[in-house]
Amino acid sequence: MSENPTPPVAATRPHSVTHHGITIEDPWAWLRDPGYPEVTDKDVIAYLEAENAYFDAIMAPHKALSETLFQEMRGRIKEDESTVPQKDGDWLYWTDYETGGEYPRWWRKPVAGGPDELILDEPALAAGKEYFRVGAVSISEDGTLMAYSTDDNGSERYTIRFKDLGTGTATDEAIPGAAGRWGDVAIEGSIGNLVFTSTGDALLYGLTDEHWRTRTIKLHRLGTDPAEDVVVYHEEELGFSVGVETSSDRKWILLTTSDHETSEIRLLPAHDPLGQAILVAPRKTGREYDVDTHGDTLFIHTNDTDTNWRLVTAPITAPGEWTERIAPSRHFYMTGVACFADFFIVEGREDGLDQIELHRYDASVPPTRLQFPEASYVAGLGDNPEYAVTKLRLGYESMVTPGTVQDYDVATGALETLKVQEIPSGYDGSKYRTERLTITARDGTAVPVSIVYPKDFPRDGTGKLYLYAYGAYGHAIPPGFSTSRMSFLDRGMAFAIAHIRGGDDLGQHWYHEGKLEKRTNTFHDFVDVAKGLIALGYTAPGGIAIAGRSAGGELMGAVVNSDPALWGAVIADVPFVDVLNTMLDESLPLTPGEWPEWGNPIEDKAAFELIRSYSPYDNVKAQAYPPMLISGGLNDPRVTYWEPAKWAARLRATKTDDNILLLKTNMGAGHGGKSGRWESLREYADEMAFVLWQLGVEG
User: Fold this and answer.
1) Is 671 a catalytic residue?
2) Which one-letter DSSP state was computed for residue 70?
3) Which pLDDT value is given to residue 181?
4) Active site includes 15?
């Protein structure tokens, strides 16, 4: 190995496109394999492999640090971790890991007593595979059948399979090309589920088309050829995706179609999904709603009159006759409603902090708001599959409090702690401090910041800080707990989350203030938070490592173009940086559905000019850039592999500094990176080692 590895240089080839009378030169457009989604072009593969080899060579001297970090983080994870069993019908369900296992096993046992049953063995299914992920799991109401979907290359095209739980044997049936949801991982555009009919002899599922769009819901009769599956619903409007789920009482199947600003829901009888559908309310641009049911009443959570949402009810027989049950509030952002047999739950955020309210169906009974002990925290409903319950499963954590599973007794208000996240290598929360700060952005907007740091962290500007944000799609980043983060804290660093506009941390208006023509607020907020933290003495220019993923990677691209001297290291994972070209190509998987988020530059010249003004790839300039580590996934249908590849190539050709620039492409994975709890942790250890190296923090 050379002591001074030479970075790859991607060739340039003439390529240009013209829109609205403006011609854009794109000399690295050839990195998009014309045969995509198959990537076989030898020049493309050679460049990606050369970048991977360069990554390995540059990081080789830091492998010991990376291994140390990996072992630290692994030591904080219980090897034989298991979830708290939860009752659903006649069974208790839970998952666990074998010691050292990459993937969980799914179990159940009879409530009345009996042996444990292994119902899904992910380690066995993943054996020999470079990548493996379960997308969805569904069990029939009588508990005799299970459907599950898997993806073994990261492309997010799932295959549905079935298992007879009575005999413990898998059937021969397989349905390829299904949509999937990545467990609890929030990924833009994820939609889809598996729903058994109440009779248990059929399954509804979403099907992806050739563009990875889920626009069709089908019904599969167990034991029949999937080619004969019946189309239950097909969405004609480009840009809308469909999903399927059940109401809390399981009497109805909900067919949802939506984009980023408009939704429409139909109800189907759970026993007769081919029966007459009930349209709750026809789509109206800008109006979103979701639905649950209680008896003959619809509970409709909607933003029709206010961005803080409200709750209305309507008879199922007259779904358009809406009566307001809970009016919108200036301070309370209502994020969701869930119905149970004797009460319903309203979740939301007040001043950015999670709230849970229990409401009786008798409106004369005042609601009960659950109380939590810390000034900054994350709280919400956990897994509550049953409709008639006397206790609610909750989750709670903060930046210094490990994940806690609790049961809330509805009658007494008592909270019972069932489990606190175990950290085998030890954890002393008194060593750390957490705060919720407010920093004023350049336009006068107060931006919240959650920060955690060692209790002896200096405030004289000498400290090092890791700053994370997302800022898109109305997706809030909660101030939760992380065992991995402790490897930064225990080396004297601070860790901060910037709750910037574009997320919905402070309400849906906060999201609207960071999208479309207001997109640059997101970038400005992030930069201004960094400058504010510097002014408060938490760090100094060059002492900040920043990170973002996907749309958060777009944020990274924007702020290294605008304020490169602020950052000491940059992690941009699967970054959405070729915004203009992607939004101009409606053949790409997500593009039509993304226009309400970013604008449609094909039809709208103003949108074209705005996106062109901030698109990170299009705004790389001849200046010094900070050290950067960029990642991509060859099979990623969300941020296609050529976006980070083109960006890295342009940065290499344009920047004026000698700082390290690395591109690592997962050749067998997609948007989520490597699967398995240890393999994904190894990737994070490499990123963490890069940050510590570049900030000069001792390992």
Assistant:
1) yes
2) H
3) 52
4) no
